[in-house]
Amino acid sequence: MADLSRTFGDKDVAADERERLIRRVFSKVAPRYDLMNDLMSMGIHRLWKRTMARVAAAAPGQVIIDLAGGTGDVAARLAGPDRVVAVCDPSTE
User: Fold this and answer.
1) Residue 87 has pLDDT above 60, yes or no
2) In degrees to the nearest 10, what's the CA dihedral of 81, 30, 50, 41?
3) Quick one: angle between helices 44-56 and 33-41, nearest 10?
4) Closest by alpha carbon to 87, among 53, 60, 30, 72?
5) For range 27-45, the mean pLDDT
6) Which of 48, 66, 77, 79 is the most exposed place for a label (fewest CB within 10 A)?
7) pLDDT digit string (tens) for 51-76?
8) 3-class DSSP state for residue 30?
9) CA-CA distance, 63 to 60, in Å (whole number)?
């Protein structure tokens, strides 16, 4: 079995090459990320994001960190004038 940390698709690649290839994929899809999710999930991703934000029940005074927050749409749902919300994502695009 291939070492998954050194594969990209069906190719064996060096670890640094794998990271570069993954970043390139994320950079290419970033401008159309939400559209891509709409098409792949038939819009259901928007429902689960709304549900997640409701269940998280952000409260006044909280500091919320959205790791791998992508486009920030979940963080936007958690935001409010009485709390701090930060998005951290490795893809700057």
Assistant:
1) yes
2) 180
3) 100
4) 72
5) 86
6) 48
7) 999 999 999 999 999 998 888 889 99
8) helix
9) 9
Distance CA 50, CA 1 (A): 39
Taking Cα atoms as reference points, which of 68, 84, 53 lies closest to residue 22?
68
Read off the tokens for 50. Answer: 């709304």
Straight-line distance from the first to the last Cα atom of the chain, in angstroms, rounded to the nearest whole number: 34
Residue-level pLDDT at 5:
65
pLDDT above 80 (res 4)? no
DSSP string, 58-93: --TT-EEEEET-TTSHHHHHH--TTSEEEEE-S---
